[in-house]
Specification:
Blueprint: H1 4-16, H2 36-43, H3 52-61, H4 69-81, H5 94-102, H6 110-129, H7 135-148, H8 151-158, H9 167-174, H10 184-194, H11 197-209, H12 213-229
Helix pairs in contact: 1-4, 1-6, 3-4, 6-7, 6-8, 11-12
C-alpha cells in the first residue's frame, strides 16, 4: 500500500534520477578528509539500501570536501528518505539541510525544488498526526519546515492536525523550555500563532483530555500566558 510519504519519496527518486556519479569521485574529494575506503563503501551498494553509517560522512561533507553538487543531488533522495525511519539521526543533523543552502537549492529546477518541499511537507503532516511521535521529532521537523518550506505552509498544516500530542511541545516553547533557540523574530511568529483563538481552543481541549495533573498545570500556565500575549 502506497502511503503519502512513500509517494513523496518515490517522487524524490524519480526527479533526481538523472544525476549519476560520473568519472572519478576521488578526484572531486579531499585527499585528507575522505579515504578511498569511504568512497568505495559509498559506491558499492545500490542507492536505495545505503545505511545511515555508510552515507553519513558524505551527507555532512558533500560539496565542500566530498564530491560536487551533481554528486550531492544523486545521493539526496536517500539522505532525505532516511529521515523518516525510527532511531535515525538524519532528521536531527542540521548539517544535512545546510548542504541544501550551500548548494543553492532554490536555484535548482522547479521540479527539484517542489519535490524537496513536498517531501518535507508530507513528513511534517505525518509527524503531527503520528500518536507515537516524539517531541524531539516534532521540534526538528518544525525547524526544517520554517527554514525550507515557509511559515504559511507550516501553520496551515499544523492547525489541521487531529493528533494533540504536539501540544506538549508547544507548552515547552511557551514556558521557555524549547531547545531550538529560535531568534526573536521567529519566537514572535510562533507566539502570535499560539495565541490565536484557534490554537487556544486546541490547548483548552488538551487540558480537558489530559489525566496528568502536572501536565494539566503546565497547560494551564501556558494558556494564561498566551491569552494575555496579544493584549500586552
Amino acid at each position: 500500500m502506497n502511503t503519502n510519504i512513500n509517494i513523496a519519496t518515490k517522487n524524490l527518486y524519480g526527479v533526481f534520477k538523472p544525476y549519476t556519479i560520473e568519472g572519478n569521485l576521488r578526484e572531486r574529494s579531499c585527499d585528507c578528509c575522505v579515504s578511498d575506503a569511504e568512497i568505495k563503501e559509498l559506491l558499492s551498494k545500490d542507492l536505495h539500501v545505503l545505511s545511515e553509517d555508510e552515507i553519513g560522512h558524505f551527507m555532512r561533507s558533500a560539496v565542500t570536501t566530498f564530491g560536487c553538487v551533481t554528486d550531492y543531488k544523486h545521493f539526496l533522495p536517500r539522505i532525505l528518505e532516511l529521515m523518516q525511519f525510527e532511531n535515525s539521526d538524519m532528521l536531527f543533523d542540521f548539517t544535512t539541510y545546510e548542504k541544501l543552502n550551500y548548494s543553492k537549492w532554490e536555484t535548482w529546477s522547479e521540479s527539484e525544488i517542489e519535490a524537496i518541499k513536498t517531501y518535507f511537507t508530507t513528513l511534517w503532516i505525518e509527524t503531527l498526526n503520528d500518536t507515537t511521535t516524539t517531541l524531539y521529532k516534532t521540534q526538528s521537523m518544525l525547524k526544517i519546515m520554517i527554514t525550507y518550506v515557509g511559515w504559511d505552509a507550516t501553520f496551515s498544516i499544523w492547525e489541521k492536525a487531529a493528533n494533540s500530542r504536539w501540544i506538549h511541545y508547544v507548552v515547552d516553547v511557551v514556558l521557555g523550555n524549547d531547545s531550538l533557540d529560535f531568534n526573536t523574530e521567529d519566537t514572535e511568529r510562533l507566539m502570535n500563532w499560539f495565541s490565536t483563538h484557534l490554537f487556544l481552543s486546541k490547548l483548552e481541549n488538551a487540558f480537558l483530555e489530559t489525566e496528568d495533573k502536572l501536565e494539566a498545570n503546565r497547560i494551564s500556565i501556558a494558556y494564561t500566558i498566551l491569552e494575555k500575549y496579544n493584549k500586552n
